[in-house]
Amino acid sequence: MLGKLFAWWNDATPGTYLTLAMKGASKVGEDEYGNKYFEEKKATASDGRKRRYVVYKGYADASRVPMAWHGWLHHTYADPPSGDEKRHVWEKEHEPNLTGTVHAYKPSGSLSRGGRRQSASGDYESWSPEG
């Protein structure tokens, strides 16, 4: 527990778990990435539903929530996933969102790769109010 106080970026803070306990939320399940899912015992949302929460394992990346759990979090599915859900052929493995990191995609000519703005190719005519 002491390690979590000083390394809070690796998991939820003790305050997160305290807040969930105070709200009467109980653990419903866990996904293959180690994210934990909680649901309140009483309906407290303005629409009369029970609030649902995810506590991320490691870095909080919303794109790491599997499709079935996403549906449950947003009340698309009444029951939490059983773990027997089959992946569709077209579903890919999760890839983290690298935007804002040193590993972000930078195409050739991008300013962050030392590129320069290119001049118009000649088929572009700028607008002017005179017409």
Describe the 3D structure.
With 131 residues, the protein is an alpha+beta fold. The protein is built from 3 helices and 3 strands, in the order ααβββα. The chain has helices spanning 2-6, 14-22, 67-73, and strands at residues 25-30, 36-40, 52-55. It has a 3-stranded antiparallel β-sheet with strand order 1-2-3, with helices on both faces. A hairpin with a 5-residue loop joins strand 1 and strand 2 (36-40). It is elongated, with a radius of gyration of 23 Å.
In short:
This protein has 131 residues and is an alpha+beta fold. It has three helices and three strands; from the N terminus they run ααβββα.
Q: How much is the radius of gyration in Å?
A: 23 Å
Taking strands numbered 1, 2, ... along the chain, how are they ordered across the largest sheet? 1-2-3
Number of helices: 3
How would a crystallographer describe the biggest sheet? 3 strands, antiparallel
Assess the beta-strand content as a share of residues: 5-15%
The share of residues in helices is 10-25%
Output the helix-strand order: HHEEEH
Span from first to last CA?
A: 70 Å
What oligomeric state do these chains adopt? Answer: single chain
**Shape, principal axes of CA atoms:** elongated
Report the average pLDDT across residues.
83
The tally of strands reads 3
Features:
single chain; 131 residues; alpha+beta; 3-stranded antiparallel beta sheet
